[in-house]
Design goal:
With about 140 residues, the protein is an alpha+beta fold. Helix content is about 15%, strand content about 35%. Strands 8-7-6-3-9 form a 5-stranded antiparallel β-sheet, with no helix packed on it.
Length: about 140
């Protein structure tokens, strides 16, 4: 005997698929969790593979000054890290501020986004809030 427990008294565990009376297979909770995790991973991988990264979007060079317009006097225009409204805010521009527009990208079914700079603030803004200044 080994510590008062004989080898024959230990329960034996077998990995047996659960089958009901009609012969249908069922998953254990642990198997369900593994399947759900695998499916979530597959969906996220597929979504990332098909996502268009901002740097890969079609664009055009502008190289011109512009003024922030269409923003309420009490509000600011958010400057973003990437050309998307959900992107991290890196700064802001006040209404009427003059900026240098480096380039813009085309966004299907939406306004274009432009890479702008004013002093140390550089990032992306929606083009509908910019009015080009005549040279």
């Amino acid at each position: 005997m080994n510590g008062g427990v004989s080898q024959s008294s230990k329960p034996r565990v077998h990995a047996v698929p659960m089958i009901d009376v009609q012969g249908d297979r069922h998953m254990t909770k642990a198997q369900e969790k593994v399947l759900v995790a695998a499916l979530c991973g597959a969906v996220m991988t597929a979504a990332a593979a098909f996502a268009v990264q901002p740097a890969m979007a079609a664009g055009y060079t502008v190289e011109t000054p512009a003024r922030v317009s269409g923003v309420a006097g009490w509000d600011n225009l958010n400057v973003r890290k990437w050309p998307a409204s959900y992107s991290q805010q890196t700064g802001f521009l006040t209404p009427g501020a003059q900026v240098w527009v480096e380039r813009c990208i085309e966004v299907r079914n939406s306004s274009d986004w432009c890479l702008v700079q004013r002093n140390s603030t550089k990032g992306w803004v929606n083009s509908r809030f910019l009015t080009p200044l005549s040279n």
